[in-house]
Design goal:
The structure holds 2 protein chains of 2 kinds. By secondary structure, chain A is of the alpha+beta class. Chain A has 2 domains: 3-52 and 162-292, no CATH class; 58-154, Alpha-Beta Plaits, CATH 3.30.70. Chain A contains 10 helices and 4 strands. By secondary structure, chain B is α/β, with parallel strands linked by helices. Classes of the chains: A alpha+beta, B alpha/beta.
Chain lengths: 295, 236
């Protein structure tokens, strides 16, 4: 018999003896995980949508005059110095006219009376694609506006700002539910373990008297906390998956879901969440055993 | 094996349970600790197993001052000692087998060893039919035997038994004493606290008498039973 097998046996016995409080703790841990991971899933999908939108994202910087080659170089240098960009394209008045004309197609006749330099020259800046492209674009725009010779910077400002606020709001909820998760897992588990410890005071005293090591006495409680975390987070993630499938079925065919297909959390994230929950519960258990079992 | 040098134990505010107790017990020796209730026998056993620290004096086990053992390492001492408590300290909801197994489980004995040893002890103590009975359902005498079985199960170097025959009939007392004798043959040191003269009168083992926390240094109890009873009566 090893420490682990002895500890596992004691853990099983503890959990069976206090199954009512174990169930309460398990339910609380599962619910906390479900709440947190639900908002995290929303945030995760929001970021994915942002990334998809960001793929087509570019800033158009209108200039008052066609820049000379040295000035073009100066613009390029300043833009690249501020942030990483995927591409910088200079569009002269003539190129803008030709492009506009192409876009009009058969209606290009309306341009016949207009001079070919009536459109302003511009720089098309495509920022590097990343999850926080949307949050960076506003800062980028503000910076570009300060460059000399810039008339106006154009991008989908309004929707980006709205989208960004929604993402920020979800982020706050994720953080708050994360705090809730930490509190419930550690405190609830610590409380349950303390109850178990108190109910087994006589046995623990006896174990000390017959020569059990501190590890032998503490290990079952640490395992108990870990099990509660693992099982609770597993149930929570399972419930989240069911909820996700239900939402997909319920809203299948809606415009939003067709425009932006959602995805479930990647396995690595699920594993990480479960690991964190398990560690938090073990931590709660550890703090409880430290307080209650003073050897 | 066990050395006590001028050991005093005082409880707050000023109750002296033991005063200046000095004696040594050799390896493989069996010693009876006698005296009336409240004489300090249980306190002395608690000091030897470091359940309580002495107020003054030195307690050594195998030449080691046990007061110097850090709390985290106390298990090394406790594993050397098997103690049968006067209040048994059994887990009432657990079976007899589970109660006995505890002392072997903590040192990670194999299950086969634990089962064999448990059956063997229960047979020696006449409890073979009670293997799976919860401790709470046993009589006091049976509980006492289970406590003894747990104390000796893991072959400790020292056995401290606090009134081990207090609730037993003559026949069962003989069984218990037989078990102790067998352990003594294996070089186990035994310190048995008792106020029952019948268990030490017929033995040649040393008797340490306590009276109100003091070591009684008057001549030892004679070997013959009749004289022994007379001697005890005088002491009491």
């Amino acid at each position: 018999m090893s420490l682990l097998s002895a500890a596992l046996r004691h853990t099983g016995r503890n959990m069976a003896n206090t199954w009512k409080s174990q169930l309460t703790t398990l339910f609380t841990v599962s619910l906390s995980i479900l709440i947190f991971s639900f908002f995290y899933l929303a945030y995760f999908n929001g970021l994915l949508i942002g990334q998809e939108l960001g793929d087509d994202l570019r800033l158009i910087v209108y200039l008052d005059e066609d820049p000379s080659p040295p000035l073009e170089e100066e613009y390029r240098r300043k833009i690249e110095k501020f942030d990483q960009v995927e591409s910088i394209t200079f569009v002269s008045r003539q190129q803008a006219f030709a492009s506009f004309s192409r876009q009009l197609g058969d209606d290009r006749d309306i341009l016949l009376d207009l001079p070919p330099d009536f459109l302003p020259p511009s720089i098309q800046v495509s920022p590097i694609k990343s999850l926080d492209s949307l949050s960076r674009i506003k800062r980028f725009s503000d910076y570009l506006q300060t460059l000399p010779g810039v008339l106006r910077v154009q991008y989908g400002k309004e929707w980006i700002e709205r989208f960004y606020s929604v993402i920020q709001l979800i982020k706050i909820v994720v953080i708050l539910s994360g705090c809730l998760l930490i509190m419930t897992t550690t405190f609830m588990v610590a409380h349950t373990i303390r109850l178990t410890l108190l109910s087994r005071q006589k046995e623990l005293e006896l174990l000390r008297l017959v020569g059990a090591t501190n590890n032998y006495i503490r290990m079952p409680f640490l395992l108990e906390g870990g099990f509660q975390g693992l099982l609770g987070s597993g149930l929570g993630m399972g419930a989240l998956y069911l909820l996700y499938r239900w939402l997909l079925l319920r809203f299948s065919g809606s415009t939003l879901f067709e425009l932006f297909p959602c995805s479930f959390l990647p396995p690595a994230t699920i594993a990480l969440l479960m690991m964190v929950a398990t560690l938090l519960c073990a931590l709660g258990s550890f703090s409880s055993t430290r307080k209650t079992l003073r050897f | 094996m066990v050395d006590l040098i001028k050991v005093t134990k005082t409880y707050q505010p000023d109750v002296t349970a033991l005063s200046e107790i000095t004696f040594s017990v050799n390896r493989g020796e069996k010693v009876f600790l006698t005296g009336r209730s409240g004489a300090g026998k249980t306190t002395l056993l608690k000091l030897i197993s470091r359940i309580e620290p002495p107020t003054k004096g030195l307690v050594e086990i195998a030449g080691m001052d046990i007061a110097r053992i850090p709390r985290g390492k106390l298990y090394t001492l406790r594993r050397k000692i098997g103690m049968a408590y006067q209040d048994f300290k059994l887990l009432p909801e657990r079976s007899v087998a589970a109660n006995i197994a505890i002392s072997m489980e903590i040192v990670y004995r194999k299950n086969s060893f634990i089962q064999k040893r448990t059956r063997e002890l229960l047979e020696q103590l006449g409890l073979q039919s009670k293997l799976n009975t919860p401790a709470a359902e046993l009589s006091r005498g049976e509980q006492q035997r289970v406590a003894i079985a747990r104390a000796v199960a893991n072959y400790p170097e020292i056995i401290l038994a606090d009134e081990p025959t207090g609730n037993l009939d003559a026949e069962t007392t003989q069984r218990v004493m037989g078990l102790f004798k067998e352990l003594q043959r294996r070089d186990t040191t035994l310190i048995i606290a008792t106020h029952d003269p019948s268990i030490y009168q017929e033995q040649r083992d040393r008797v340490i008498r306590l009276q109100h926390g003091l070591q009684d240094t008057s001549p030892p109890v004679p070997a013959r039973p009749s004289e022994a009873v007379a001697q005890v009566d005088t002491v009491l």
